[in-house]
Amino acid sequence: MTGQENTANRELPYRAIRNVDLTVPFLDMNFKNPVMPASGCFSFGREMAALYDLNRLGAIVVKATTLDERQGNKTPRLAETAAGMLNSIGLQNPGVERVMSEELPYLTQFNQLPVIVNVAGTAIEDYVMVVQRLSDMDSITAIELNISCPNVKCGGIQFGTDPAMAQSMIRAIKEVARMPVIVKLSPNVTDIVQMAVACEEAGADALSLINTLIGMQIDVEHKRPLLANGVGGLSGPAVKPVAVRMVYEVTSAVSIPVIGMGGIMTGVDAIEFLMAGASAVQVGTANFVDPYACIRIIDELGAWCDAHGVRAVTELIGAAKA
Amino acid sequence: MTGQENTANRELPYRAIRNVDLTVPFLDMNFKNPVMPASGCFSFGREMAALYDLNRLGAIVVKATTLDERQGNKTPRLAETAAGMLNSIGLQNPGVERVMSEELPYLTQFNQLPVIVNVAGTAIEDYVMVVQRLSDMDSITAIELNISCPNVKCGGIQFGTDPAMAQSMIRAIKEVARMPVIVKLSPNVTDIVQMAVACEEAGADALSLINTLIGMQIDVEHKRPLLANGVGGLSGPAVKPVAVRMVYEVTSAVSIPVIGMGGIMTGVDAIEFLMAGASAVQVGTANFVDPYACIRIIDELGAWCDAHGVRAVTELIGAAKA
Amino acid sequence: MSLVKIHSHTAIGSEIYELTFVSPVDLQAVGCEPGQFLHIRVTDSFDFLLRRPLSLCKMDIEHNLVTVVYQVKGAGTKRLSEKQVGDVLDVLGPLGHGYPLHALDRAALLIGGGVGVPPLVELARQLQKAGKVVHTVVGFQSNQHAILISELAAYGAVTVVTNDGSLGRKGLVTDELTNDFCSSYDRYYACGPTPMLQAVQQILEKHKLPGYLSLEERMGCGIGICVGCVHKVSRDGQEMNVKTCKEGPVFAAQEVLFT
Amino acid sequence: MSLVKIHSHTAIGSEIYELTFVSPVDLQAVGCEPGQFLHIRVTDSFDFLLRRPLSLCKMDIEHNLVTVVYQVKGAGTKRLSEKQVGDVLDVLGPLGHGYPLHALDRAALLIGGGVGVPPLVELARQLQKAGKVVHTVVGFQSNQHAILISELAAYGAVTVVTNDGSLGRKGLVTDELTNDFCSSYDRYYACGPTPMLQAVQQILEKHKLPGYLSLEERMGCGIGICVGCVHKVSRDGQEMNVKTCKEGPVFAAQEVLFT
Ligand SMILES: Cc1cc2nc3c(=O)[nH]c(=O)nc-3n(C[C@H](O)[C@H](O)[C@H](O)COP(=O)(O)OP(=O)(O)OC[C@H]3O[C@@H](n4cnc5c(N)ncnc54)[C@H](O)[C@@H]3O)c2cc1C
Ligand SMILES: Cc1cc2nc3c(=O)[nH]c(=O)nc-3n(C[C@H](O)[C@H](O)[C@H](O)COP(=O)(O)OP(=O)(O)OC[C@H]3O[C@@H](n4cnc5c(N)ncnc54)[C@H](O)[C@@H]3O)c2cc1C
Ligand SMILES: Cc1cc2nc3c(=O)[nH]c(=O)nc-3n(C[C@H](O)[C@H](O)[C@H](O)COP(=O)(O)O)c2cc1C
Ligand SMILES: Cc1cc2nc3c(=O)[nH]c(=O)nc-3n(C[C@H](O)[C@H](O)[C@H](O)COP(=O)(O)O)c2cc1C
Ligand code: FES
Ligand code: FES
Fold it and tell me: What is the ipTM of this complex?
C-alpha cells in the first residue's frame, strides 16, 4: 500500500458556506464555483482523485494533449526560484488517442465535473486533428487551446505571440470544434490586449491567461543553465502581479469571459483576479505546494465573501474597475 | 542629529579579497568591480554617501533625469509583492538643470566613481535636449537611455517596445552625445533579441536590462488597484529568472557589452548574470532592503571567486554558455 | 542596519503590541528625536521584502533600549507579532526628522489617534523635561484599543475620547479642539490617521495655533533613495512632492497639503 | 499533508542530520515500504516554494515516529537543519513505491552511497525480520560522512569503504562487487548518487544478479501531477519517461536507462 491513498483520509473539513452563492456562469454553463486546476498542474486528475472528491472543483483542466505521444524534455525539468518555479516539461503526454481511451473515461465518474482539455501542438494541422478527435467525445466541456507553451522548440509559442497566426489557428479550430474554445494566452508579448482582441475577433469563446513567463536559472557551481532545456516557464506567486495586470487590461478590452491565473495560492489571491475582471480562476503551482490547494481556495473564497457580506461571488467580478 | 548619519559607522567590514581581480573592462574604461546601483534605486547618491564611501562602487547610475522637473505620480506609489515590489514613482526628479547644478557636482568628490546618468522623457526632442545639456559636463561617464519606464503615460514606453522607434531615438541621441550611450531595455516585449539587435544597429554603445515588468496589485478590501497609478513596475527577486533569460539571449545575439539586472540580492545572484553573459550588473530593489547591498554584493562576489579559484571576475562572463 | 535583540514583547491592547529591543544606535552618544521612526524587517524571507516603519515610542538611555508600539494591520505586522524575546531583529534607524522643540514655548498640545499615539510618548517626555506644560488629547476606537495613557499621564494632563464611548468621552479628538481650549497652548503636535490630521490641521489653522503633523505614507527604503513615500507640500508658493522618510515624517502643519 | 511535531533532531555527521518526527500516517494502520519518501516543506516561506523529498530511514511503530537522515546540500536543507525539537513540520507522505521484498529470497545484498544509505536501514530491518540474510556494502566520502553503520549492523554484515580510506577500505562500493562475492545473494537493492547506481547496474547485470535501484530526480509535486521528475526506462522494448515520484523512486534495475 502506498502513501497517496492513505492521505485521502486527511482532507480539510469541507466548510459549507451557506450564505454565499459560489456559482459562476461561464459560456452557456454554470460552474459550481470559479476555481479549477490549471493545465499541467493536475495531470489527468487520477492522482488527485485519491485525495479528494473532484466533484468539488468548479471544473478540471487536464494536461496538454498532443496528436502523438510525447516524452518531453530531458531532466532536470524543474527549478525553484524566489516565490516561484521554472518548468520545462515539454508537453509530455500519451497523445490524444490514449488520452481518450485511458484518461478521460476515468473522469466521467465525476458527474458534476466539467472537463476542459488543454490542446497543444506544433502546426495548425496537429491542433485541428486533436480537436477533431476530441469532438467525438461528449463528456468534454471545452477545449483550451495552448498556443503559448514556452517549452517546445519551434512549437506553439509562435502562435501565442503573433496575432495573425493566432487568428488562423483559432479559425481553423472553430471549424472543427463541437465544444467551446478557450484560448490560453502567453504573457511573453509586448501587447497582451492586441493578442486578446485578435483572438476574440477570430471567434474564441473565452480566454485564459497567463501561461508561464520565460525564464532561466544558472547553476553557478556547474556554470550552466540548471534546466536541461536551458529556459523554462516561470510560475507561482512571483508572477501574480504581471498576471493580474494582464487580466485587468484584457477584461477591459474584450467581452468574452476570461479565466485568470498566475500565482494563485489563497482565496484572497483568487479574489484579486476576480476583482480584476476574471470570470473564473485556475490554480497551478499551488497544487504542488499543497495538494489540497484548490479546495482550500474554494473554502477561503466562500469564507471571505461571508465575512465581507458578499452574497454571490459574481459580485466580485470586475469590482476593482473604476 | 538624525539617524542616517549615525548608521554610517556600522558598515560591513570591507573584506579585501587579495587574490581576486574584480576589475571589468567596460567600453573604453575599466570599472574597479562590476557592481553598480540601478537607476531610481540610489537617488543621486547623496543619502548613500552618508552610509559608505561611494568610491567602492564599480560605478553609480543616478535617478532618471528629464528635461523639466517632474513631481511623479500620486501615492501610494509602492506595493509589496511575493519576492518583489511594484513601483509607480513616475520619474519624479528636479529636471536636468537642477540635476546638473545641485546633484551631479556633489558626486565629483568621489574621484574614482564613474557616473552614469539615466535619461528619460516623453518625445525624442526631450531626450535629445537632456543629452545635449549633459554633454557639457565632463564628469559624466555615460548616458543610460531609459526608453522603457513603464510608469509614464504616453511616455517612453513606446520607444522601448518598438524597434524602429528605438532606432530613431538612438540615432538622434548619438548625434549629440559626447559620451557613450547605454540603452536600457524593457522586458515587456515579445522579442528582446530583436530589440537588442535593433539598438546595436542604431549605434548603442552598450545595453542594460531589464527594466521592470508591468504589474498590478488589487487591494481587495477597497476593491481597487493598490497603486494610485493602477499599474507599476515589478522588480526584485521575483523577476530574476526572466532577467537572466533575457541577458543570456541578448548577449548571444549582440557584440556590445550588456549590463544585467533584475532581482540581484547577493553575490551569487550577480554571478548568475555574469555567467549568463553580462559584463557588469546593477542592483536596484536590494538597496531598499539592505542599504549596504551593493558593497555586500561586491564582497560576496570576491569571496565566491576566491573560494572557487577564480582569479579574475572576467573569467565568469558568459561562462554558462555552452 | 543592525541586528538587535528583542528585550520584551507584550500585547497591550486588541492586536496592539509593545516591542522593546536593543537600540541600533548608542542612545547616550547620539540621542533621538521624538517622531523619528525605526525601519524594521519582520523576517528575512522575501515574502516580506520591504521594511515596516514604526515610530519610536520610548527610549531607555540607561539600558540602550528603544520601544515601538504597533497594531497588527496586515501580514507583516502579524509576522512581527510572532517574534519572541531573544529573537534577533534587523532594524534601520532611527530615521527621518522628528518633532522640533521650541525653546520659548510654555505649553504644548499633543493630539494623537490610534497607533499615531506612540511617538507622542517620547515627545511628551522631552517636552516635560524641557519644562513645558503638556496636555495630550488622544482618540481611540474603543477601550480595547486605548494604549499608552498612563505613560502620557506621567508627563501632563490627558484627555481621552473613544469612538464608541467605552472610555472617556464619546466622539473624535477634534471635538475637543475648541478655540477656548486651544488658546492655552503655544503649539500643537499631531500624529494619527490622515483624515484626523487633515481635520486637526483645518481646525487649528482657524484657531491660529501653529503645529506639526507626522505623516504616514507607504515607504520603501526609508532613507530617501526610492522616492516612493512623498507627500505634497507647499513651499514658497510652490507645490512639490517631498520625501516623508527623509524630510519628514514630521512637517510643519502649514505647509502640508491634502488632496 | 500533515503538520507534525519534530521529536528529535541531531547532527550525526559532517552536515548530516537525523530528524525524527510524528508520522503523518498511522504506522500501525497503514505500514510503509522501505524506499518510500517523505515530501517536506522546510518553511512556509515562498522562498522555498517546493517540498524536499527525503527517504524514510526508520519507523518507530510503537510511538508512531518516522526518521529521515539528510545532508545539507543547498539553502533548503540548510533551513531544515535550523528546525528545533517541538517545531511543526509540513509533511506529505510516505509517497511513492519502495523496495519490494521477495518471499523466496534467502539473502539480499544492499548497496548504498552517501545519503543514499538511509532507506537501506528500514529495508534491512524488514528483510531481516522476514528471515533473510542481509549484507550491506556502504561507501562514504570519508569517516566524517559515514552514517548509520551501527543501525545496519544490527540486521546483518556491513562492509564500509571510503573515498579517502579514513574508514574501512579505501575505494568505491563497486570495488567490492566481485562475481564471487555477489554469487551468494538472490537480489540486490541499491541507493546512492546516479554515477554509483549506473556502475552498480552495469556490474551486477554482468554478474546476473537481479535488483532494484532507487532513483533521484528533482521533484515538484511528489504525487504524480507535475511530470517533472521523470526518468527513462525501457518497457516491452519501448523507451519511455516515467514519474519517479509515483512509479518509483525504486525501479527494477533492468528497466532503468542511463544516458
Ligand atoms: C513614519 C511611520 C511611522 C509609523 N509608526 C507606526 C507605529 O508607531 N505604530 C503602528 O502601529 N503603525 C505605524 N505606522 C504604520 C505601519 O508602518 C503599518 O501599519 C505597517 O507597515 C503595516 O504593515 P503590514 O505588513 O501589517 O501591512 P501590509 O498591508 O501587509 O503591508 C504591505 C506594505 O504596505 C505598507 N503599509 C501598509 N499599510 C501602511 C500604512 N498605513 N502606512 C505605511 N505603510 C503601510 C507596509 O509597510 C508594507 O510595505 C507608521 C507608518 C509610518 C509611515
Ligand atoms: C526520492 C528522493 C529521496 C531522497 N532522499 C534523501 C535522503 O534520504 N537524504 C538526503 O540527504 N537526501 C535525499 N534526497 C536528496 C534531497 O532531496 C536533496 O538533497 C534536497 O532536496 C536538496 O535541497 P536543498 O534545498 O538543500 O538544495 P537546493 O539545490 O537549494 O534545492 C533546490 C531545489 O532542487 C531540488 N534538488 C536539489 N538537489 C536535488 C537532488 N539531488 N535530488 C532531488 N532534488 C534536488 C530540491 O528539492 C529543491 O526543489 C532524496 C531525493 C529524492 C528524489
Ligand atoms: C509543471 C507545469 C506544467 C504545465 N503544463 C502546462 C500545460 O501542459 N499546458 C498549459 O497550457 N499550461 C501548462 N502550465 C502552465 C499553467 O497551466 C499556468 O498557466 C501557469 O503555471 C501559471 O499559473 P500558476 O502560477 O498558478 O502555476 C504548466 C505549468 C507548470 C508549473
Ligand atoms: C523605486 C524604483 C524606481 C526606479 N526608477 C528607475 C528610473 O528612474 N530609471 C530607470 O531606468 N529604471 C528605474 N527603475 C528600474 C531599476 O533601475 C531596475 O531596472 C529594476 O528595478 C530591476 O532591478 P532590481 O530587481 O534589482 O530592482 C526603478 C526601480 C524601482 C524599484
Ligand atoms: S521611503 Fe524611499 S524615499 Fe522615502
Ligand atoms: S514530482 Fe511531480 S510528477 Fe513526480
Answer: 0.96
Looking up cell 556502504, which residue turns up?
Answer: D138
Contact B240, A83 (CB under 8 A): no
Kindly give the parts of chain D with pLDDT less than 70. 1
d(CA A131, CA A65): 10
**Chains A and B: how many Cβ contacts under 8 Å?**
128
Give yes or no for residue B267 CB within 6 A of ligand 4: no
- Over chain A, what HEC string results? CCHHHHHHHHCCCCCCCCCCECCEEECCEEECCCEEECCCCCCCCHHHHCCCCHHHCCCEEEEEECCCCECCCCCCCEEEECCEEEECCCCCECCHHHHHHHHHHHHCCCCCCCEEEEECCCCHHHHHHHHHHHCCCCCCCEEEEECCCCCCCCCCHHHHHCHHHHHHHHHHHHHHCCCCEEEECCCCCCCHHHHHHHHHHCCCCEEEECCCEEECCEECCCCEECCCCCCEEEECHHHHHHHHHHHHHHHCCCCCCEEECCCCCCHHHHHHHHHCCCCEEEECCHHHHCCCHHHHHHHHHHHHHHHCCCCEHHHHCCCCCC
Q: Say whether pLDDT at A13 is over 50.
A: no
CA distance B168 to chain C (A): 31
Is any Cβ of chain C less than 8 angstroms from the Cβ of D43? Answer: yes
Pairing type for strands A24-26 and A29-31 reads: antiparallel
Q: Grid coordinates standing for D157?
A: 554484515
User: Is the CB of residue A80 below 6 angstroms from any atom belonging to ligand 2?
Assistant: yes
In this predicted structure, what is the pLDDT of residue A251?
98
Query: Cell for D210?
Result: 537481479
Q: Mean pLDDT for chain A?
A: 92
Mean pLDDT by 10 residues, chain B (322 residues): 36 57 95 98 97 97 96 97 97 96 96 96 92 95 88 61 92 97 96 97 98 98 98 98 98 98 98 98 98 97 95 98 86
Cell of C164: 464608541
Nearest-by-Cβ selection for D25 from A6, A289, A290: A6
Q: Please tell me the distance from the alpha carbon of residue C26 to that of residue B263, in angstroms, as a whole number.
A: 33
pLDDT band at A322 (very low <50, low <70, confident <90, very high): confident
For chain C, the three-class secondary structure string (H helix, E strand, C coil) is: CEEEEEEEEEEEECCEEEEEEECCCCHHHHCCCCCCEEEEECCCCHHHCCCEEEECCEEECCCCEEEEEEECCCHHHHHHHCCCCCCEEEEEEEECECCCCCCCCCEEEEEEEHHHCHHHHHHHHHHHHCCCEEEEEEEECCHHHCCCHHHHHCCCEEEEEECCCCCCEECCHHHHCCHHHHCCCCEEEEECCHHHHHHHHHHHHHCCCCEEEECCCCCCCCCCCCCCCEEEEEECCEEEEEECCCCCEEEEHHHECCC
Nearest residue in chain D measured CA to CA from A78: D228
The answer to whether the beta carbons of residues C51 and B289 sit under 8 Å apart is yes
| Closest by CA position to A305, among listed A3, A15, A11, A19 | A19
- The distance of D14 to chain C (nearest Cα, Å) reads 26
CA distance A149 to A199: 16
- SS3 call for D17: strand
Distance of alpha carbon B305 from the chain centroid: 24
Q: Can you list the positions of beta strands (E) in chain B?
A: 24-26, 29-31, 35-37, 60-65, 78-81, 84-87, 115-119, 142-146, 181-184, 206-209, 213-215, 218-219, 224-225, 232-235, 258-261, 280-283
CB C161 within 8 A of CB C171: yes
**Residues D118, D13: Cα–Cα separation, whole Å:** 13
User: Any catalytic annotation for residue A154?
Assistant: no
> Distance from CA of residue A157 to its chain's centroid?
16
